[in-house]
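cron nightly-structures :: item 1 of 1
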Amino acid sequence: MTETDSNAYDVVVLGAGPVGENVADRTRAAGLTTAVVENELVGGECSYWACMPSKALLRPVIARADARRVPGLRHLVQGPLDAPAVLAHRDDHTAHWQDDGQAGWLDGIGADLYRGHGRLAGPRTVTVTGSDGTVRTLTARYAVAVCTGSRARLPGLPGLADVRPWTSREATSAEAVPGRLIVVGGGVVATEMATAWQALGSRVTMLVRGKGLLARMEPFAGELVAEALTEAGAEIRTGTSVRSVRRENGAVVAVTDGGDRIEADEILFATGRAPRTDDIGLDTVGLEPGDWLPVDDSLRVTGTDWLYAVGDVNQRALLTHQGKYQARIAGAAIAARASGATALEAGPWGAHTATADHAAVPQVVFTDPEAAAVGLSLAEAEQAGHRVRAVDVEFSSVAGAGLYADGYRGRARMVVDLEDEVLRGVTFVGPGVGELIHSATVAVAGQVPVGRLWHAVPSYPTVSEVWLRLLEAYRDS
């Protein structure tokens, strides 16, 4: 290795995914010199192996499903999807795994991009090892922000590496449709990829260790998604774990804890995430490599006054939009501290406080039907000690839903705090409900009283009239 130069900046950002890009955007907007270090593609996991490719795969699937529910149109969309065209659509939305555009965006905001592996080398110091072995040293006057994200976590099954299993990366970037696919897991990645590949022509078998799908949402969400996947042809086995896996004559053979043998062309493990912190020099600043990084509400790492951990690495909310929100908070906090501010807006909902991480995290699962939620589920609210009541309505009571699709199936729930008469959480399940969730997010984050929501009149006849049905059910029960 040859050290070539050393450069000083106000801020150094490790990781150029959406989170790192947003930290850099905010610190540059505040006039702070900023370096960004990336060892893969600028744009990160979301752009190339997660949000964008998965939704590009799923959009034709959901559009066809919606069309099949519309009279006068359903007979035109009864054939199979054009899988090569769907995969090409996916490739277009990942820019064919080229990052020129996003690297150009960083240059446009005035941030300096360093390509290579970044590691902490003591307080406020980062070394960058390039592909040619050269090492550059970057020093930060005010802050280093770790925005390195997370990776798929694989179970410790003997010989698993020899099987060449899919993780979320392979599932979103595969070049061909496998004839048979085993999906291990029941969370968001598992359900979305089962939905996509089943519709593209795979015969999908889901092996779910728990009692059902989407365990972190209201129970009815997973139930409705499981029902639709089963109707589409997928097989779902709950209460099932994989005991062993191997390849025989090119095929994957998985053996369950019950002794069943299942063969497939590929196997996807969607069994959780681990932080990308194992090789970034945490030991040089007294932290444990491979650990999640605990932070305060300004995203500063506990026990430090210069190190920030933003996005997945802090384990607060492993969602791209939430990481970008954290990045805006962290960027503002870094800028305020750099300007000499002695006190930040540290109260709830302040400019330097990531309050939404605790109270108003929204998420959409792009299955058919979609599942969308924000805030606390009923169980979570009760566990937190709130005195709450759940109010449920079926979308069959909403005129706009019947116009959206024949036989529209879905359910909505709002969790009402009976002390303050505000919403602690909202969940929607049904076709197209992802577009409803921001209204719920505003209600939860804004702590809008139920009495005031009466005066937010939903347009008729739209699916959003479900809000009126929920409020009527609360009033009348």
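cron nightly-structures :: done
Residues 320-338 form the longest helix (19 residues).
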